[in-house]
Amino acid sequence: MEEGLELYIPKGPRKLVDHYRPKFQIRTGSHDEKAIETVWARNSYRRHRDGFQPKPGELWLDIGANVGAFGVMAHKFGAEVVSIEPEPSNATLCASNLEFNGIDNPEVLEVAVVPDVFVGDWVTLFTSKESHRRHSIARHRRDSVELKVPARTLASLVDEFRPDGIKMSIEGAEIQILQNLELPGFVHYLVAEWNFQTDNRLHTLAQGFERMAARYRKVEMSKKVNFTRPTFDFYPASIHLYGWD
Predict the structure, then answer these.
(1) In 1, 59, 68, 103, which residue has its Cα 20 to 30 A from 77's Cα atom?
(2) C-alpha triplet 199, 202, 208: angle, nearest 5°
(3) What CATH number does residue 109 fall under?
(4) Is residue 222 included in any domain, yes or no?
(5) pLDDT grade, residue 130 (50/70/90)?
(6) What is the 3-state secondary structure (H, E, C) of 8-21?
(7) Which residues face 107 on adjacent strands?
């Protein structure tokens, strides 16, 4: 274990953790634990009763990979994974955690995913050095440090890797992507975290959800939303959207 890192085992659910035995290296004093528990303890990116999770033989894009929590889960479930993480220290730790869990030569792309209408090869990433989380190309925080990073459109990644599924957690950049969603038929699963801190207007969420509903046979939200309200003003300020064939 490198200096400044410590071993972390997800807290649960115990049946899942005991069976797959995931393990992670996290940065001492960071919020890495929260990113891992979102995936493992809260099961935010899977609906196993609906068959919505990575399966053997599938390929998944982990967009907004952070320290690799979802990528490790996809690997443990028998799928291949391409991890996409624009923040350099996160990308390095993501690759290390994938190797730590038995993936040889993991594929980690150090790029930011941008809407298909984006023009250019680089984009500004607003990084949060305090928490190592919540880095975003869509929202500037008070403690943000600007970093120029390579940019890739979602369409270009889908064309290159032809994934069966996509997990997306990119701190507000998902909003424009989902409002203009166009995915080919071979992408059978899409789960995205919708960040209300970037845009809390519910008609914006409705547009994104309707776009997913036009593409997928089944669509769900992780919580009920009262669309008669103009804005979503509750904590936590995010929900998850699921679409699958």
Answers:
(1) 1
(2) 80
(3) 3.40.50.150
(4) yes
(5) low
(6) ECCCCCHHHHHHHC
(7) 82
H or E element in which residue 210 lies: helix 202-215
In a domain, 34, yes or no: no
Q: HSE on the CB side for 198, CA within 13 Å?
A: 23
Q: Is residue 107 part of a domain?
A: yes
pTM reported for the whole predicted model: 0.96
What is the number of domains present in the chain?
1
The range of the structural domain enclosing residue 103 comes to: 41-244
CB atoms within 10 A of CB 136: 23
CA separation for the pair 124, 122 (Å, rounded): 7
Query: Concatenated DSSP letters for 72-104?
Result: HHHHHTT-EEEEE--SHHHHHHHHHHHHHTT-S
- Closest among 20, 69, 24 to 44, alpha carbons compared: 69
No. of H helices and E strands in the chain?
A: 7, 12
SS3 209: helix
For 186-224, what is each residue's pLDDT tens digit? 999 999 999 999 999 999 999 999 999 999 999 999 999
User: Cα angle vertex 91, ends 154, 128, to 5°?
Assistant: 90
Q: Is the pLDDT of residue 170 over 80?
A: yes
